[in-house]
Amino acid sequence: MNPLRTLILAAAGNDTIRRLVATAPVSRDVVRRFVAGETTEDAVTATKDLVAAGLSVTLDYLGEDTTDRAQAEKTVQAYLELLDRLRADGLADRAEVSVKLSAVGQALDERLALDNASRICAAAEQAGTTVTLDMEDHTTTDSTLGILRELRRTWPWAGGVLQAYLHRTFDDATALATEGSRIRLCKGAYKEPDTVAHVAPHEVDLAYVRCVNALLAGDGYPMFATHDPRLVEVIGERARWYGRKPGSYEYQMLYGVRPEEQRRLAGAGETVRVYIPYGEEWYGYLMRRMAEKPANTALFLRSLVSKS
Ligand SMILES: Cc1cc2nc3c(=O)[nH]c(=O)nc-3n(C[C@H](O)[C@H](O)[C@H](O)COP(=O)(O)OP(=O)(O)OC[C@H]3O[C@@H](n4cnc5c(N)ncnc54)[C@H](O)[C@@H]3O)c2cc1C
């Protein structure tokens, strides 16, 4: 692993650095580039800006790996409050939510996670929008897809995520490319062993393209989450080849990452959804974004040493 990446990931677990990042006035700008803020209000403000620019959004209340029922309940309440605001502010047709099952109790009790996800889906239905279940490390894939299946019995619009790096994903993509099935395809963000996942970046890219084909060939609604310029081009080309019209699939990118490209694609008539993270637990998320991209890291380090 790149030493800078190792350093940044080590900083992710360091309380002193966390306090420094949280309080340094300039670093706040860096945080704000990738995280909408800590409150529902902040999330709604960022949503309004992006919607006004012609983009759609999916909102993620940050936090994961809860082993505490009270924390899981806090997460559910945050989503219920957010969904209520999206409805009240007339944003629900362009703004949905993304949920990590580990944040609503999956590690404690699968039944609790299903119940909590069901409460969020019911609130989303009331608000007039949808929910997508994020995908986490490979030990949770079966459980998450099982919960997705359960949710879809009541809410067929519930979306799932497949990670192209997993060896199993081509089969999952083929099986899930059914009428109305909303599936986000990403490369995959967790450190996985080569027994379950492609590790070489080139292999991951090839696997991603195979899954693009599987999803576009089916009847579902694929949501292609990537910032990779080559893949964005391939997706456009394959979509045309399969006779898919813009709006029968979408692109997704993270808040603050390639914002000009997000607007360019939307300007060309594509549906582009921006994944907006918000909430008090922003630190781990921010550190992962820093570790992903050297340019982000440089921006971040400069902000920490800057006096202004
Ligand atoms: C909307 C969304 C939802 C996601 N949900 C999940 C999930 O549920 N589960 C999960 O495991 N992972 C998820 N991910 C993360 C994903 O798996 C990848 O880890 C992450 O998106 C990086 O992969 P990439 O496809 O962007 O390409 P990378 O391989 O990271 O980058 C490829 C190229 O993209 C360009 N690029 C990348 N980042 C930047 C940047 N910051 N600025 C400019 N150019 C850049 C560069 O040209 C780079 O060479 C999600 C990602 C997105 C966008």
Brief summary:
This protein has 308 residues and is α/β, with parallel strands linked by helices.
How does this structure look, described?
The chain is an alpha/beta fold. 53% of the residues lie in helices and 13% in strands. It is built from 13 helices and eight strands. It has an eight-stranded parallel sheet. α3 (25-34) packs antiparallel against α13. The longest helix has 20 residues, at 69-88. The protein is globular. The model has no long low-confidence stretch (mean pLDDT 92). Bound molecules: flavin-adenine dinucleotide. Residues 134-135, 161, 163, 186-190, 225-229, 252-254, 257-258, 275, 292-293, 296 line the site of flavin-adenine dinucleotide.
Which characteristics define this entry?
single chain; 308 residues; 13 helices; eight-stranded parallel sheet; binds flavin-adenine dinucleotide; alpha/beta; globular
Q: What's the overall average pLDDT, rounded?
A: 92
Enumerate the strands of the largest sheet in spatial order, edge to edge or round the barrel.
3-2-1-8-7-6-5-4
* Outline: globular
Q: How many strands, what sense, and barrel or not for the largest sheet?
A: 8 strands, parallel
Coarse structural class = alpha/beta
H/E series: HHHHEHEHEHEHEHEHEHEHH
Distance between the termini: 33 Å
List the ions, cofactors and other small molecules found in this model. flavin-adenine dinucleotide
Strand content: 5-15%
Helix tally equals 13
Low-confidence stretches: none
User: Using DSSP, what is the number of strands?
Assistant: 8
Proportion of residues in helical segments: 40-55%
- The value of Rg in angstroms is 19 Å
